[in-house]
Structure formats: C-alpha cells, structure tokens
Design a protein that fits this description.
Layout: H1 10-13, H2 22-33, H3 37-44, H4 49-60, E1 67-71, H5 77-83, E2 89-94, H6 97-107, H7 112-115, E3 118-122, E4 135-141, H8 150-160, E5 161-172, H9 178-200, H10 206-215, H11 220-229, E6 232-240, E7 245-252
Parallel strand pairs: 1-2, 1-4, 2-3, 4-5
Antiparallel strand pairs: 5-7, 6-7
Helix pairs in contact: 4-5, 9-10
C-alpha cells in the first residue's frame, strides 16, 4: 500500500472494520494525509474539533500530578491540551511516524513549562509497553474505531490505569435526531469526502474511509458495553454538537 497505492477501495469500504489488514491500511492512510490533517480537521468540523477535545479534557477531571496517556494522539492536539492542565506528564502514542513528526514539531512551539511535560513515541494501542496501573488518565480521540481490535485496545487502556483512573474516549457517532442525522450523512458522506480529498491531494481513499468507518462502527450502547467488558465502571456518555460525536468516560474499578 505504499508508493501511491490506495489504502481503501470499494471492496474494503463495504465494512472497513472487517479488513484483516485494517491496521496497515489505516497506517498508510494517515501517512498519506498527515501534512494536511490538522487543516482538514478544522475546516470539516466547522472549527468544532478543538472544542470537542477541550470537553474530553474537562471530563477527564485532571488533578495535580496526574500522569496522562493519550493514545492514537496523531498530531498531538489533545496531548497538548492535557499538557496545559495540572498533569505532571503527558505521553502521546501513535503508530504512524508521519503523524508523530508533526506532533513533535508542534511541541517545539509550546512554552517551555508545557513542552517539558510532553513526550511522544511510536506504539500500538493493542499492545502498550507500559506497566500495569501506571497512568491516572488514558484518552483516545477519534481513534478507537481505527484500531484493528477495539476490545483488545480497551483492555489495554484499563490495564495501564491506576484504580480510580479515568478512561476518556472521544469518537464520532450517529446523531439520534433525524434531521441532524440526515444532514450529517449528506455532509460526511458526500460533501466532505470531495472537499477534503481536494484540499489534501489525497489518493489513499482516506476521506471515503472516514465516514464509512463511523457508519459501520459501534453504537453508543455497544461502546458502553465494550468499555464495561474491558473493566471500566460507571461509564457515562455525553453527546456533543447534537450527537455528531460523543465523549465516553469510565473509571478503573
């Protein structure tokens, strides 16, 4: 899938979560769109994506001295927001080096006291290198649906959380209100793939995959059950922007 080959074609887009090589396809896709990823996020969320991330930070309830692990951190937007809290350390993990290169470049523009809290490394959400009970907060923003086996990743997130630690997941979902659902389906399924592909110059099929991966992913109820099955308790969900995305929060019990 390198050298310009499409990561996603019609056959694999029927249900991208069923692709046996989904991880490699996702990695190739993000490598292809990394350079314009932030710009597309801002434009096609109508500048709401950072507000959604700020909500996730608030729901995490950061306390002084907390250690935070931000999985599938991408270019580091959520990681940097956590670093501006009272957290003592924020580790960003992603399995696409091209995305982490951009995250590291953005870190250099932070004020020194914030920059000192942030570190980045290549890693797999399904096989974290960290010891059991080593973080107070684990977060993942718009990344759980891109994992080959989300259930395995959720178990890893809970494993590395300390008792009472918070798991925060930000993810797109299907709006409950019919008019919002119809608009979102048209915008995400027809408008965004065309404009985002043009803006990024993408040839990987990324912006056809992204809306399809939302349509075929877990419902809110399924996500809550899977978090609970992984060992997270007291799970609650907050809908954002009329249900276009949702923020899930659970505790390590």
């Amino acid at each position: 899938m390198r050298g310009g080959t499409r990561a996603w074609d019609d056959a694999h887009l029927r249900d991208p979560h069923e692709a046996e090589d989904k991880s490699e396809r996702v990695r190739a896709m993000f490598a292809a769109i990394a350079r314009r990823y932030d710009l597309n996020n801002r434009v096609h969320s109508l500048w709401r994506d950072q507000a959604w991330r700020r909500c996730a930070v608030r729901m995490a309830g950061v306390r002084a001295g907390d250690r935070v692990l931000d999985v599938a951190c991408g270019t580091g937007d959520l990681t940097q927001l956590f670093a501006r809290t009272e957290a003592s350390e924020v580790v960003g993990v992603d399995f696409t080096p091209e995305m982490l290169d951009l995250a590291c470049a953005k870190r250099e523009r932070l004020e020194p006291r914030v920059r000192a809290r942030v570190s980045y490394e290549v890693g797999d959400a399904m096989d974290l290198r960290f010891e059991d009970a080593s973080f107070d907060i684990v977060s993942i923003a718009f990344g759980i649906r891109n994992v080959q086996d989300p259930g395995r990743a959720l178990r890893e997130f809970v494993r590395v959380l300390r008792p009472g630690g918070r798991l925060v997941i930000l993810e797109f979902t299907t709006p409950r209100l019919a008019p919002v659902r119809w608009f979102n389906r048209f915008y995400s399924g027809w408008v965004m793939p065309r404009t985002a592909t043009w803006l990024s110059g993408d040839t990987s099929g990324a912006y056809r995959y992204l809306p399809r991966s939302v349509e075929t992913f877990r419902s809110r109820e399924q996500m809550v059950r899977e978090m609970e099955d992984a060992g997270a308790g007291r799970v609650r969900v907050r809908d954002l922007s009329l249900g276009i995305c949702a923020c899930y929060r659970g505790l390590r019990v």
